[in-house]
Write a structure and sequence with these properties.
This protein is an alpha/beta fold. It contains eleven helices and nine strands. β2, α1 and β3 form a beta-alpha-beta unit.
Amino acid sequence: MTELVTLDVEKGVGILRFTQPKRRNPYSLVFVGQLVAALKSVEDDDSVRAVVMTGGDHFSSGGDLVGFRTEIAKGTRATQQLLDTANTGTRAAFNFPKPLISAVSGVCYGGGMSLALCGDMIVAAQDARFCQVFSKIGGVPDTGSSWLLQQRISAAAARQLVFTGREISGQEAHDMGLVEESVPAGQTEEKAIALAQEIAANPLFALISAKRVMRETAETGFEQALQIEGRAQNIMMNAHDFPEAMEAFTQKRKPRFKDM
């Protein structure tokens, strides 16, 4: 079987590379299976503290319409199974417990854009091309993009992108708050890895706990957020790293974290 996703680990950072940029890394069912397996492998590896997803010259052109056509032709049940399988890719990325950064160059369309949006942060090339292409092909948003878009930009701005199927550049995406950083072409992966390494310098349990708190509080009110934070912080303050940080501060030395 062709290897569509590779994994390298550098300085505590897992780098998931999509290997078919010349084909614009289609979001195929085989790709989804390999992506889910790769994410699972680094989820269980404590030496990996943050992960970067990158497609090289192109992040992903979205759903493999040629490959999907055979399944769709079988009818509604087969089509639903196809959609359920496609959703496992974005579900695995969104629920990944460690910090996840999407490094986007070239095209980032449809399901590929949904996958990029699952990252905690997106670093995009200024000339990257984002598109909710679904309406252009007679479809509706899938793989979670209808929800993911509205977590990053206003509902009205999300509707505009969905209804028009308009393509926007990485710079435009940054200007509207869709991505966190926009960099010159050719610097996307380097910038994303540097950001991941900065994050990876922190204790792993704290990173996982902070991501969980941020996700949970984003969908609550202020009082509920205080309770969520309090429960998590109570655990952290009695865990091994926080007491060591306090001891190191008292002794004016660098902390010696146990999970580093």
